[in-house]
Structures are given as C-alpha cells and as structure tokens.
Design brief:
Layout: H1 5-25, H2 34-56, H3 65-68, H4 70-86, H5 92-99, H6 101-113, H7 120-150, H8 157-160, H9 167-189, H10 193-218, H11 229-260, H12 263-274, H13 281-299
Amino acid sequence: MELTWFTFAIVATFCWGLSDVFFKKGTDPDDKYGHLRILIMIGLIMGLHAMIELQKLNWQYDIKNIISYFPVSFLYILSMAIDFYGYRYLLISVGSPVASTSGAMAGILSFKVLGKTMSGVQFFAVSLITLGLVLLAILEGKETKKEGLQNSKPKNKKNKLGAIALLFPIVYSLLDGVGTFLDDVYLSKYFTPEEALISFELTFCIVAILSLFYIIVVKKQGYKLVNEKYNIYGGLFETAGQFFYVYALNSNSVVAAPLMSVDSIVAVIFGRIYLKEKLTKKQYFTIIMISLGVFILGFYE
C-alpha cells in the first residue's frame, strides 16, 4: 500500500490525540512543575529518536541546522509548554478543541501567503473542519462557564480560573499556528523532512535536559521514572506523531495542517472513554461534522 500525505496525517492525528490523553492523565493539578515533567519526557524520547534518524542518514547532518530551524522549534516548544500548563486547569475535552484551531490557521496562512492551492472540494472540507472546531470550542467554553456557575466554590483547579483558563489553549493555538506556517516555509525552501525532524528533536532534547536540571538541582524536586508512566506513553505517541507530521506537511501543507487539527477529536473521544469526561449532543454533532470533513479530504486525495 502506498503511503500518501493523508495516511501520514491520519496517523499523526491519532498519535497526538492519544498523547494529549496520556499527558492529561499523568498531570497532577497540584504539581506546578507538571508541564516541565511532560516536556522532559517528550524531549528525552525525541532525543533518542533523533539518534536513530541520524544513524539512518549515516550521521550526514549539519549541526548548524539546529540554529537555523530554531525559530520553528522555539514556537512549537513554547506553545506546548503553555498548553501543558493549562492541563492543570482544563478538561482535555475543553482545551484540546480550542488548541487545535491552530492547524486551520496554518492552512489558511499557507493558502494566502504562500499562494498554495486547493480544490473546491478540499476547500469545503477544510472549511467544514474549521467550522466544526470553532463550534466545538464555543460549546466547550459554555460548558465550562456552566460548571463554574453551578460550583460557586470550586473544589478543583480546573474551575478556579473559569473562562480565563481558556487563554492557555488560545495562546497555544496562535503560537502553534505561526510555527506550523513557518515550518511549511522551511520545508518548502530550506529543509528536508529529515533535517527538520532531527533539528526539532535535538532542540527538544536540550530543553528536556535544562528542565530536568531546573527541577532537580534548582528547585530540589524529585524526579523518578516510575512516577512518569503516563508521560512516557504520551511522549512515545507525541514523538511518533511528529515523525509522521513532517512528511504530511511536506507533501500537502495547506490541507494536511487543518486535517491534523482533528487530533482534538481523538482526544475528546478517548477523554470521554478513558478519563470519564462527558459529551453533549451538540458536541457529538460537531464531531460528526469534523469527521465528515476528514472523510472528504481522504476520499478526494
């Protein structure tokens, strides 16, 4: 079977959706360094994968690429740190759909700025996905507000910030959208998918080492791998998603970026099953709308 951009995008979508669920499962609302623990695990696993990729290239890699690719890596890692910090305050089914509007933003930027094209059917599908994501974000915001009104004295962190907590996934969306757009530029003109992947993973590994030093040496906090089970699972899926992502983006960025935004749907569904979170009928409708857009993209590829 020939692997197309659509196959890569779908696999990346599922991997990232599952990683979100595992990271949320492993997040302790009372641990203010929880986002750093997630970054550490992702970075360490990505560092190992970078070694594998370098070996496949017979170590033919210019280390200066890390610096050249740094603007993209910086935006990605910063956006992820902010999003992970928000896990302390938001249900995964609330934050993930809001955050995932970044893919649609990146697709629009590629379409407008880079002059890339899409067919009428593809434009309809991307619009359907975008509209579904926006509606889902609105519905989740209303649910959060409703829960806040029902709990005038919230007993957990996810309700303490109320609507303000939505700023975490919103900021993530903005940063990640620009990062994805820049990534498209780099892949189109300067980097191969392998070079981009290795550069990002090595940068993330450096961030992980610095974060580990900060937690253990500076803040005198404990760090034991036996306590990082869910972050390990999440890190593995995150790394796998990044691997398939660069090939999907390199092949068809204007459509692939919005398509991979539906990792939020995977996160919502598994969040309902695994984390016992709830869905309303309206939320189910938006999920069907987004799924239809995904089907159209795959059918007309």
